[in-house]
Request: fold
Amino acid sequence: MSGTTTPATAVRSALTVDGRTLSYLDFGGTGRPLVALHGHLSEGATFAALAEALSPRWRLIAPDQRGHGESDRAADYGRDGYLADLGALLDHLGLDRVTLLGHSLGAVNAYQFAARHPERVSALINAEGPASLGLDGANPFGFLLNLPYRAASREELLAGMGPAAPYFAERLRREPDGGWRLPFHPEDMYRSEELVHGDHWADWTATDCPALLVHGTRGVIPAEQVRAMTERRAHTVAAELDADHLVYTGAPEEFAATVLAFLDTLPAAPVSVPATPAAPAA
Reply:
């Protein structure tokens, strides 16, 4: 939920999925592809600092997930919908196999996609994505239901947001008719949060590709769950940063250094060798 200034090298593009626009930022370069999935109330542009830190060895691609940022709202915010969007994005980009990085909602989406399509994921970076969440039935996004989605002016929208205004002030969208709106619909996000709750241990432990679990000292994953997530999933390491749940924007330099150190341990990408031309017939 921080600022979303993007470098000039980032190119915004879009694809159509089931009649909806799915927007994404490609930070460019010829490095290995890394797809980064933001969490609730956020958008792909929040990965700009990480993209710069990983360049030129890694080409970071960050979609605005359904209902966020420049991507259209969806009728459904269940697990299958988010994962289908990610598969469509990879197909659109012609990426057979990638490293997936996700924060919160995006982290759950990343490891669930890997569980269903292990052949397409070479490594996982999970930032503050629990293997089990919301089992008590509480939805922390109740406050969203009191927020206005749209107003005639920016000032009116900010006033209606009350204490939440500072978190979203730099990300408000101006509409063609001159009105202003939030970069997400409050009701959509409340529903999406409910639908990501559950026991996802089977998905977290379904794969054994290299994985990094980054958690904050003031994050949402209990210490005992962090230990269990590393112990129960093969080839998984954990890293703790002095940050809250918004670990990659709250401690950007430390997060980038931690991610780079992990990426440096991965096997080199296979080199494609052109086929030798056949000798001419005698």
User: Anything to note?
Assistant: Confidence is low (pLDDT under 50) at residues 1-5, 272-282. The chain is about 30% helix and 25% strand. The longest strand covers residues 236-244.
